[in-house]
Design a protein that fits this description.
globular; 22 strands; about 35% strand; mainly beta
Length: about 270
């Protein structure tokens, strides 16, 4: 994969997948299915066993036959690859903070979670992983510790070309109603702030057309949220749960061999 090529993470293989809790105890009202509900404020929680271990195994959906999906393609010969993993978290509210400081073993990777509890982080396997089951083993917890997992993305990525110049990765917008007094003094009440970014690509190469059309149909046209990582290798914590806040995302033809593509993303706070 190209170093720091932006990634669109939109098809979580854990969503709707059957699972079993092998070690530890699933918290009542916070099932492990919540790791793929696209809502960091409704997290999954699991209590570690006396040795400080928790383990869950998912059975992934079956393969996809060529031509069964729209646009006549079956990814990787009919099976979705695991090209990225995201340990999700909410940046703004403690209810969606992740339990940090633990070791995650998933899809053949061992991840030492050293990042702040209010940041999401993306991890890329060195090569796509093809498997029918995914086992998550968490170690390093205290005996009986409650572990919070706001979101866990495991699945394919649309690896895009590098962004057009002019992209601001930290464009945060503050919502602050103002109130003016008789003296002229102005008071601002900051209610929230969120990232609002506009990634653009002058050239979307033909190898991506089918996947991008599928992404538009399955995610953008139904206004679903998805993970956006603009620089996954050098800035692994700059990954955000976002929504395209426009009614459509155009991908017009620019020549016989390329099209352009742009998004208007707002952070799903």
């Amino acid at each position: 994969m190209t170093q720091d090529a932006p990634m669109i993470l939109w098809h979580n293989l854990l969503a709707g997948a059957a699972y079993t809790v092998d070690i530890g105890t699933e918290e009542a009202g916070r099932p492990m299915s919540n790791v793929a509900n696209l809502d960091t404020l409704r997290p999954a929680q699991i209590t570690a066993d006396p040795s400080g271990v928790a383990q869950v195994t998912w059975t992934l959906p079956g393969s996809i036959g060529y031509g069964v999906e729209p646009f006549g393609f079956g990814p990787w010969g009919g099976q979705w690859p695991i090209e990225a993993i995201v340990l999700g978290a909410n940046r703004h509210q403690s209810a969606g903070f992740r339990t940090p400081g633990l070791t995650w073993e998933i899809a053949g990777l061992t991840i030492q979670d050293i990042w702040p509890d209010n940041t999401a982080v993306i991890v890329k396997p060195s090569a796509p992983v093809m498997t029918s089951t995914v086992t998550l083993k968490i170690t390093g917890a205290a005996a009986g510790q409650l572990i919070t997992i706001p979101e866990l993305y495991v699945g394919p990525a649309i690896t895009m070309p590098h962004l057009d110049y002019g992209y601001d990765p930290y464009h945060e917008v503050a919502n602050a109603p103002s109130f003016k007094t008789e003296s002229g003094r102005e008071y601002l009440a900051v209610r929230y702030r969120r990232l609002e970014v506009s990634p653009r690509w002058s050239v979307a190469p033909s190898r991506l057309w089918a996947m991008l059309d599928y992404f538009r149909e399955q995610v953008l046209e139904v206004r679903k949220v998805f993970w956006w990582a603009w620089s996954p290798d050098s800035h692994p914590t700059e990954v955000y749960l976002t929504r395209h806040n426009q009614p459509a995302a155009g991908m017009p033809w620019r020549s016989s061999v390329h099209r352009s593509f742009d998004l208007r993303l707002v952070e799903a706070v």
